[in-house]
From TrEMBL:
Keyword Metal-binding in annotation: yes
Protein name per UniProt: Phytocyanin domain-containing protein
Residue ranges constituting the Phytocyanin domain according to the UniProt record: 22-125
Signal peptide annotation: 1-21
Organism: Hibiscus sabdariffa
Ranges that cross the membrane: 143-162
Length: 163
């Protein structure tokens, strides 16, 4: 196998290792609200899900009725929204999970967090081979697939020409 062919194969395999992020509607059809099940509702919602860097959380809520604040673990545990990492007051809002580790979200409208409107997710690093149940491919999946297909076609043509 020539050096050009080897390079083409390595590049093709790299391009084909595309990653699929997933979009999750927080709370599914219930959305982002004071949940009927109290504290356990959003904990139960996350139980069968694995979150990866690049996944998107869609918080569906009416502007003025709720908000989403990203907070520290201590603020999450005490429902304290006085020093948030980020605040989103206009709904709906989509938040991309851009790092590994725990993310903590609360609604800081009085009584909402203590009523169970809080969410923690553990985000892992690694590729997602396909969307998981309860999620849908995010907006970049189609673009990634197109780029992979075009790149593979170009590399195949180069392989034919140089080998």
């Amino acid at each position: 196998m020539s050096m050009a062919a080897l390079v083409a194969v390595v590049l093709a395999s790299t391009v084909l290792q595309t990653t699929y992020g997933a979009s999750y509607t927080v709370g599914d059809t219930t959305g982002w609200t004071v949940p009927p099940g109290g504290d356990e509702f959003y904990d139960n919602w996350t139980k069968n899900k694995t979150f990866f860097v690049g996944d998107i959380l869609d918080f569906i809520f009416a502007t003025g009725a709720h908000n989403v604040e990203e907070v520290t673990e201590a603020a999450y545990d005490t429902c304290n929204g006085t020093n948030p990492i980020a605040t989103h007051s206009s709904g709906p809002v989509s938040i991309t999970l851009n790092r590994t580790g725990e993310f903590y979200f609360i609604c800081s409208v009085p009584g909402h967090c203590t009523g169970g409107q809080k969410l923690s997710v553990d985000v892992r690093n690694g590729p997602r081979s396909a969307p998981t149940p309860g999620s849908s491919p995010n907006r970049s999946s189609s673009a990634s697939s197109l780029v992979a297909a075009v790149s593979l076609a170009i590399m195949s043509a180069a392989l034919v020409l140089f080998c």
